[in-house]
């Protein structure tokens, strides 16, 4: 079963939303994935993330903010995806079989719910393309910009 790690700085917003969205997309595509998210430092899951995900029927009320120390077998992932530049810069080195991707998204923290929804929707498009590629036996999109499912502004 492929293992996916989504990494951000605080594991409080973007990576939490991405984790839930990847799980939902995998279920839609009938793809079995083990999905985790973590931060370079742990804080708390922001309530706005739970609100905008609940609008899609996704429940993250049981999620907690984690670091790599909290993730099982943290050095063995098939894919490590960073969703912010800070996490990309601080991402640990992974063995050769791990494929890294960097999909940077705006931090919705401190913004309106409309901003949170916009980031959620962008994450949803990107990670739908990610899961769809894995389901088709293709390489995951190498970057946010290269993903055919996400319009380039």
Ordered list of secondary-structure elements with their pairings:
Layout: E1 3-8, H1 14-29, E2 34-39, H2 47-54, E3 79-82, H3 85-90, E4 99-102, H4 113-135
Parallel strand pairs: 1-2, 1-3, 3-4
Helix pairs in contact: 1-4, 2-4
Domain Phosphotyrosine protein phosphatase I: 2-133
Enzyme class: oxidoreductase
Protein name: Arsenate reductase ArsC
Describe this structure in words.
This protein is an alpha/beta fold. It has a single domain (3-135), classed as Response regulator (Rossmann fold). Helix content is 35%, strand content 13%. Strands 2-1-3-4 form a four-stranded parallel beta sheet. Helix 3 (85-90) links the parallel strand 3 and strand 4. Helix 2 (47-54) crosses helix 4. The longest helix is centred in the last third of the chain and has 23 residues, at 113-135. The model has no long low-confidence stretch (mean pLDDT 89).
| Helix/strand order | EHEHEHEH
Mean pLDDT: 89
CATH superfamily descriptor: Response regulator
Number of domains: 1
Distance N terminus to C terminus?
35 Å
Assembly annotation: single chain
Low-confidence stretches: none
Q: Trace the largest sheet across and list its strands.
A: 2-1-3-4
Number of helices: 4
Using the alpha-carbon principal axes, give the shape. Answer: globular
Rg over C-alpha atoms, rounded to the nearest angstrom:
14 Å
User: What's the β-strand tally?
Assistant: 4
In short:
The protein is of the alpha/beta class. It has helices spanning 14-29, 47-54, 85-90, 113-135; strands at residues 3-8, 34-39, 79-82, 99-102. The protein has a single domain (3-135), classed as 3-Layer(aba) Sandwich (Rossmann fold).
